Amino acid sequence: MDRSTSLLRLILLALGAALVLLVVRSAFRLPRGIDTPTTSLFDDEATAGSSCTRFAPWGCRQADRIKQKPPSHENDVPRHPLDPLTISEVNRARELLRAHPPFASSPSSMFVHSLALDEPDKPVVLSWRKGVDPLPPRRAVAVVRFRGEAFVLAIDLASGAVTPLPVPASGYPTMTMDEQVLLCYTPFRDPAFNATIQRHGVRLSDVACLPISLGWYGPSEENRRLIKIQCFSAEGTANFYMRPIEGLTVLVDMDTREVVRISDRGAGIPIPPAANTDYRYSRHMQDEGDDQQTAGFQKVRAPSMEPGPSSGPRVELVDGHTVRWGGWEFHLKADARAGMVVSRARVQDPGTGAHREVLYKGMASELFVPYMDPTEAWYFKTYMDAGEYGFGLQAMPLVPLNDCPRHARYLDGVFVAADGRPYVREKMICVFERYAGEVAWRHSESPITGLDIRESRPKVTLVARMVASVANYDYIMDWEFQMDGLVRIKVGLSGILMVKGTSYSHLSEARGNEGDMHGTLLSENVIGVIHDHYVTFRLDMDVDGADNSFVRVEMARQETGPGDESPRRSYLRATRRVAETEKDARVRLSLYHPAEFHVVNPAKKTRVGNPVGYKVVPAGTAASLLDPEDPPQKRGAFTNNQIWVTPYNKSEEWAGGLFVYQSKGEDTLDTWSERDRPIENKDLVLWYTLGFHHIPCQEDFPIMPTVSSSFDLKPVNFFESNPILKQRPTKEDDLPICTASTAA
Amino acid sequence: MDRSTSLLRLILLALGAALVLLVVRSAFRLPRGIDTPTTSLFDDEATAGSSCTRFAPWGCRQADRIKQKPPSHENDVPRHPLDPLTISEVNRARELLRAHPPFASSPSSMFVHSLALDEPDKPVVLSWRKGVDPLPPRRAVAVVRFRGEAFVLAIDLASGAVTPLPVPASGYPTMTMDEQVLLCYTPFRDPAFNATIQRHGVRLSDVACLPISLGWYGPSEENRRLIKIQCFSAEGTANFYMRPIEGLTVLVDMDTREVVRISDRGAGIPIPPAANTDYRYSRHMQDEGDDQQTAGFQKVRAPSMEPGPSSGPRVELVDGHTVRWGGWEFHLKADARAGMVVSRARVQDPGTGAHREVLYKGMASELFVPYMDPTEAWYFKTYMDAGEYGFGLQAMPLVPLNDCPRHARYLDGVFVAADGRPYVREKMICVFERYAGEVAWRHSESPITGLDIRESRPKVTLVARMVASVANYDYIMDWEFQMDGLVRIKVGLSGILMVKGTSYSHLSEARGNEGDMHGTLLSENVIGVIHDHYVTFRLDMDVDGADNSFVRVEMARQETGPGDESPRRSYLRATRRVAETEKDARVRLSLYHPAEFHVVNPAKKTRVGNPVGYKVVPAGTAASLLDPEDPPQKRGAFTNNQIWVTPYNKSEEWAGGLFVYQSKGEDTLDTWSERDRPIENKDLVLWYTLGFHHIPCQEDFPIMPTVSSSFDLKPVNFFESNPILKQRPTKEDDLPICTASTAA
């Protein structure tokens, strides 16, 4: 079709959707901004009417809230070379883009898929001195689509220069939030769809739809931006996820909003009942006609976590993005794609007092979430949440007291809508000091030695948290910093399951074919489908400087020989192997071939000669068992190993490729690493994949309690001795005085 | 030798040791009780002088403290069938033993190695109704040694009947604390030892020695109770562990206290310096002449954890041993060997309100800690801390505010000294409500769906904790109960490393032979030796009743075929396999052959037909790689698999055997399981081993920060839906009002 008509068509479709919504909004309310523009707070163009167009309805909602408590980001200025683009910088970049050919010919045909800081080169950032040097030139990098074509552009905000950069050979950019929202309403303008819905016995006004990325399964799906939309009944529950209209899949062209194909394989599968699925506390209260002392609700006696008096370390948030606490200093920011980015993490050496570099940049790079059902309505569900949906775009405001403790500090994110306008995501990240009742170190002497020693030091840590709600799943991402130099990176999976409708209301109806359910019967007509989650982190380690090496310290059984003169037959021996090239550093973990994985600075030794390093310490994880030649696994090939090491390359940030949407797996961590570049004594990037297998159980119905796992970055011969030695025990006076709150 | 003279010899040795101690006590103080008897609080025999004999000096220290705050255990009476023996019951059992032939002929020759409740049979406990039924008959089981022979005896406390039980064929009972203490001083009466010490240039008054169990390495070590003693210099530091007199090993006959052999392989190995090894805060303060605002000490701004107002669930401690909280109810007690025992853990069903049985009894059954150095002074270090040293005996009083939060409740333990007298271990277990800033469940709707939903529920849990300080290592044992039915069992390793002296003061001196160090150079003349830790838990699961089955739910790649009509080539398929016999239930975990491990009640199904169960969920762990035929691995064969299932057998409680000291591995979980008994629909016991490899690093010097791992017992189709659905969100009023403490 003629690409030049696509914008017009888009507008018409949006208007059509708005009309439909007059019908559906009772159960399923469209963000107000779509039909109710309000005044923008962020627009620096005097002529502009509103940022609250169809493109940024969530911006409007934020703006409404801002009336009460303005976030004051309009006047933000960057203070650190890594600070994200400010509102005025976004507006400036937008102006420059709109004035740039070919976009200048039709600025409203330009859709901004991403617009973010183009970080200065590492040496520039590393040599910058706060309060002494001016900020390095501010630059942005944008991904835009214009008349069906993708562009990647570097923007010099000072000079105004806009420079095209190479565009990936396959795949499409991360969806804009705007189109994700509109896609939910797209099917309703198709009469065949509406008829299908009616055949399923659902009122249109009860239907809620979700856009589901379709992966890539061969040439028939190439050369157009496609998505599959599936729908649910929201009748009688906010938890429409538990009420799938099973088997109904609407293939849509994302650019034209055209319904390409409707597949309806759900004959005979009822929509599961709404009863007992709504999870909202407020709704339960309403139902029970009771406000507080609630029918069967368990009121948690939450121990509060309140910091003690002011003489200890405190959480400092300097210039909005630099966190200082307990010897740590790092830069923290929201990112539309990665969610949360930790940069320049440095830890104080208790001996010298110097802040020593550990991690130049760390973030979730990509996710891979394959479902394990090969049938028509499910096979394609192999999400890559960061590159397809935007892990940061999906991060919603955190819920004080429940998502983070009372004393938490919050950071907002500034993101960019499809029309290039900025909006603020409030309370997107929280930072708090954590005391979990754990012990950092302790030792008692026993009566054996007769020394009356009881030494103990509580563990207090700092947590930076964000939560991405990618439709049903909520990913709780924690970076936890310990005073002894350890960093724990933790992923919690929460939210709601993606479930499948079934005609079964009892397992006995499966008659021995339970395997063909591809999951567990969770409730009448509801199957929880088996799936995996993989989160691949990119960790640009700079241990005491950029040039590092990767060392495997392998443990293996050593049989004793006659020369050992030992009654022992065997022991464990450790062997250090320095990885020379990328392929040496591909690690598949094994319980029976254990190893430690060190990133060392070969130029630095401790007093007694050990190489200074940090190690990555896996904990519970899972490995993908899909066929490596299966299309989803080729795209998700960055999960083929748990650990990879690559030489630093600014263009290798996204493990599945810059454009993962419908990508073929041609530009992944696996293909980069296949080049087998030298990595010894180089600026290295360490990649770690945290995995989960999930066989649902009834406890995952109708909500899914948080399951979490983590891995650590841990100093190994980095310090001369343990920093905890310098931690003083806690005394009564260190703690606040707490009394019961007046209202009970 | 004539066994009948051994007591006399023991007394003489003890007196000899006491004389030596007049010299050594400045640096290394013997518990006061040894030479300073005080009045007993616990003795109910009017004629007795003191419980504070040479046998229970730690009891004396407790008694001193008790003057300020009596623990009031003298009048304790049992209130639950599983309550541990009270002080008067111990005294009663002691009387009965002393009156029993052959002990009556010489009661003071009888050494009590263990004296504990003989738990009533399971059906008796299960049918007992509090407040209705009288307690079942109270019985004790004792392990005593008398003139070189071991006895196991059942004692009926009411009737006074004492009945001999079978004695294991190999091995010796857990050492008494008394002999462990005395053994520290035994070498000093040997002139050859003293001369050796002088050759090492150490003053006798600076020497501290530790008794080290020697495993079993063949016939030459059979038929006598042997131990190896190694020594350290305590000059200039409380952290004598960092100052080994390397290579010096004193083989001692535990019964005769005879020095059998002195091995001194440490020529040329200096004693590492004391500088920077003392970890005591008080000592540092003294050195610095500073009380609070300390030279470089980091004062932690510990967020306190204080419970909110009284309307939520609270920790109830009923009758001293029954804990109720958040739907959970369980019996909790101290145990001299296992440390801490959780019994009859039952969780409330949010649907029916009924308390449903999960776990009849859970505890650490045995530990295995092999060091990985085959040389003369190290090869034998393959500890089994529970059965050799007594994991509970080594548990010291917890340090309030540092080991447990301010609001923690404490439980004491009542243990038995070698002479059969009871003593109290104060504050041995703490129980507290925990809020770690985590999220039990949360979900936000994204702008995609337009529903403005932000639901979140904080995770509040209950922790029961004890810490065993087995000489240098401190094992922090947590049982954590969640409101959704999950139980997390966590082991933290803290304390101080066992290190090896070396002539090296810089790694370069190893000249490429680093492997022969068997560890890491941590500081000048100090090597941290590679070692493993395994903790094997015995979990008598009773999921909704005693008869359960063990099911592996195996996940494997399934290739799609033409019949699947799917563009996918592969997916993960789960297959359930019910274990028929013990060998079917031996599990070696693999990342590439993942499975879930369910204990189900085959007689109970959920509404939709799923078998009701709990699963054991491993997280990070390690597997022993020693040669299965290596003597230590034969003794530690209970670590050959991570999971085992056995049919319930009251006599199979200790994974390494009842008598593990010098045992040959003839009576372990491995040998029991080898019988391959049927386990389908039986009363089952699940065994799980948590493992750690430890390659020390400089951060482990001079103290070792806590490293922890855990596994979970998690409901799987146990509840009809998730209990968190019934948790109300936290509101400001739920939290206490906290202000800074006045003293800063």
TrEMBL record, chains A, B:
<dbReference type="GO" id="GO:0048038">
    <property type="term" value="F:quinone binding"/>
</dbReference>
<comment type="similarity">
    <text>Belongs to the copper/topaquinone oxidase family.</text>
</comment>
<dbReference type="GO" id="GO:0009753">
    <property type="term" value="P:response to jasmonic acid"/>
</dbReference>
<dbReference type="GO" id="GO:0005507">
    <property type="term" value="F:copper ion binding"/>
</dbReference>
<dbReference type="GO" id="GO:0009308">
    <property type="term" value="P:amine metabolic process"/>
</dbReference>
<feature type="domain" description="Copper amine oxidase catalytic">
    <location>
        <begin position="311"/>
        <end position="724"/>
    </location>
</feature>
<keyword id="KW-0479">Metal-binding</keyword>
<dbReference type="InterPro" id="IPR016182">
    <property type="entry name" value="Cu_amine_oxidase_N-reg"/>
</dbReference>
<keyword id="KW-0801">TPQ</keyword>
<dbReference type="Pfam" id="PF02727">
    <property type="entry name" value="Cu_amine_oxidN2"/>
</dbReference>
<dbReference type="InterPro" id="IPR015800">
    <property type="entry name" value="Cu_amine_oxidase_N2"/>
</dbReference>
<feature type="domain" description="Copper amine oxidase N3-terminal">
    <location>
        <begin position="173"/>
        <end position="272"/>
    </location>
</feature>
<dbReference type="Pfam" id="PF01179">
    <property type="entry name" value="Cu_amine_oxid"/>
</dbReference>
<keyword id="KW-0186">Copper</keyword>
<dbReference type="InterPro" id="IPR036460">
    <property type="entry name" value="Cu_amine_oxidase_C_sf"/>
</dbReference>
<dbReference type="InterPro" id="IPR000269">
    <property type="entry name" value="Cu_amine_oxidase"/>
</dbReference>
<dbReference type="InterPro" id="IPR049947">
    <property type="entry name" value="Cu_Am_Ox_Cu-bd"/>
</dbReference>
<dbReference type="InterPro" id="IPR015798">
    <property type="entry name" value="Cu_amine_oxidase_C"/>
</dbReference>
<feature type="active site" description="Proton acceptor">
    <location>
        <position position="385"/>
    </location>
</feature>
<keyword id="KW-0560">Oxidoreductase</keyword>
<feature type="domain" description="Copper amine oxidase N2-terminal">
    <location>
        <begin position="80"/>
        <end position="162"/>
    </location>
</feature>
<protein>
    <recommendedName>
        <fullName>Amine oxidase</fullName>
        <ecNumber>1.4.3.-</ecNumber>
    </recommendedName>
</protein>
<keyword id="KW-1015">Disulfide bond</keyword>
<dbReference type="InterPro" id="IPR015802">
    <property type="entry name" value="Cu_amine_oxidase_N3"/>
</dbReference>
<dbReference type="GO" id="GO:0008131">
    <property type="term" value="F:primary methylamine oxidase activity"/>
</dbReference>
<dbReference type="Pfam" id="PF02728">
    <property type="entry name" value="Cu_amine_oxidN3"/>
</dbReference>
<feature type="modified residue" description="2',4',5'-topaquinone">
    <location>
        <position position="473"/>
    </location>
</feature>
<feature type="active site" description="Schiff-base intermediate with substrate; via topaquinone">
    <location>
        <position position="473"/>
    </location>
</feature>
